[in-house]
Design brief:
transport; alpha/beta; amino-acid transport; binds adenosine-5'-triphosphate; BCAA_Transport_ATP-bd_LivF; 6-stranded mixed beta sheet
Length: 228
């Protein structure tokens, strides 16, 4: 059984249809990349998986459990840790308070997060508002991990960040993969994404148009669907 299985997803914003036929799977312990040019439906797919923008039809099964009709906090409690686009933390809480507010029992605790992101240890008593964009992104990832999720979803986690911070975040992603953490990731940096991905799904205009391993993604496919 796959950890996450998404079939024939159709999602609307009001009358406007954003997803027409999205299919993807994430196996336990795997890094799955969700790819496609701007506006093709990656964020909407993630929002549908989390029931933030519920799908109108199709099927989403997480850890054997259909998620239809569950409110977002219940989907999260099934074991999905979302790091949304544009990182959201509580600006007036300290770094440590932000992490502890998300905590659920499991392997990931403050010590483990500090090991993954030493900068968050250095800044533990600062309010989140005073962090750089990259540090806030680390905090957003740390918060998702503190829920001890079975699946972490990263939506453009490295976008718009300084190169040194991007490097740190990719290193953290590789560490997570090495520890067997299941991850669904959207990111535009193919040179970092492809080496870490076990499988790729490409969306075009709200439809899955290709899926396969990164090794089988030819330059032709990249040019056709990703504009590389
Ligand atoms: P990007 O890489 O630019 O974030 P994406 O692949 O994540 O793109 P989505 O953000 O999922 O794409 O957008 C898919 C489609 O849905 C686009 O046509 C977009 O204009 C539309 N859309 C996204 N959010 C909304 C919204 N809140 N209301 C109406 N339409 C939306």
């Amino acid at each position: 059984m796959s950890l996450l299985e998404v079939q024939e997803l159709q999602t609307f914003y009001g009358k406007s249809q954003a997803l027409f036929d999205v299919r993807l799977t994430v196996e336990e312990g795997e890094v799955a990349a969700l790819m496609g040019r701007n506006g093709m439906g990656k964020t909407t797919t993630i929002r549908s998986i989390c029931n933030l923008t519920p799908a109108r039809s199709g099927k989403i099964v997480f850890a054997g459990r259909p998620t239809a009709g569950l409110p977002p906090h219940r989907v999260a409690r099934l074991g999905i840790g979302l790091v949304p686009e544009g990182r959201r933390c509580f600006p007036n809480l300290t770094v440590e308070e932000n992490l502890l507010a998300a905590a659920r029992p499991g392997k990931w605790d403050l010590t483990q997060i500090h090991r993954l992101f030493p900068r968050l240890a250095e800044r533990r008593s600062q309010s989140a508002r005073t962090l750089s964009g990259g540090e806030q992104q680390m905090l957003a990832i740390g918060r998702a991990l503190m829920t001890n999720p079975r699946l972490v979803i990263l939506d453009e986690a490295t976008e718009g960040l300084a190169p040194v911070i991007r490097k740190d975040i990719w290193a953290a992603i590789r560490t997570l993969k090495g520890e067997g953490q299941s991850i669904l990731i959207v990111d535009k940096t193919l040179s970092e994404l492809l080496p870490v991905a076990d499988r790729c799904t490409i969306l075009e205009r709200g439809q899955t148009v290709w899926h396969g391993s990164p090794e089988t993604m030819t330059p032709d496919i990249q040019e056709r669907f990703l504009g590389v």
